[in-house]
Amino acid sequence: MTRPPRPEPLPHPVVDNHCHLDTARGDEEPWAVEEALAEAAAVGVTRIVQIGCELPGARWAVEAAATYDALVAGVALHPNEAPRLPDLDAAMAEIEELAGAHAKVRAVGETGLDFFRTGEEGRAVQVESFRRHIDLAKRLDKTLVIHDRDAHDAVLDVLDEEGAPERWVMHCFSGDAGFARRCLDRGAYLSFAGTVTFKNAQPLRDALAITPLDRVLVETDAPYLTPTPHRGRTNASYLVPLTMRAMAEVRGDDLADLCVAVDATTDRAFGGAW
Fold first, then answer.
1. Range of 24's domain?
2. Global confidence as pTM
3. Predicted confidence (pLDDT) at residue 245 exceeds the cutoff of 80
4. Per DSSP, what are the bridge partners of residue 16?
């Protein structure tokens, strides 16, 4: 497999706050963790939040975070996973155990709602799972990481009903400026992925432009959502500089200033530096 070339390094380190190092696209193999971390660090992406969103992935994320200094973990049942489980109670019990297993498990997520891949028949279970993850994040003082696909209003309805935790992140933010304001008014951090570079993503760029500097995060969602000009190829944390440069241009920020801010904001969003 030939990967996109390494981009120019960033002027200050940043964190990829949402990555799936254990996941491969199609028939590819996941990149060796040590190599993925080294390539990312070479361009200024020195830390990563590894997200596990089903039980095997959550177990892997906890083990990886305990092994590598550059990683912390998030654990949860993805909203598309929850309706497929034979026993949600047992799965949630294991997620709770994993979430409390190690200090480097900083997040409960990704959880949330996905009305694109899950039809009406599975939505009640999605909502129940989301509510239970919100409760878990609050009880354990973890950051809540939210997956929201075609479910903007429903996500905020559940958050309003349950009460959001102190720290919560809209992973791969996909709304427009109006939805961004609604999330920000509730205390959200908004995380932008390679989608912000796509030609058809002007509403997303409008949302980025109005997001306060102390609420902006960057992510890959690797191995997916590869930024332009490599859209469609396999993503990895070392490609974050492409997204960061596009974000700085959209916002009119100095790149170094934006990197400093994103790095500090990520620490706040995930409960402190690591």
1. 14-269
2. 0.97
3. yes
4. 48
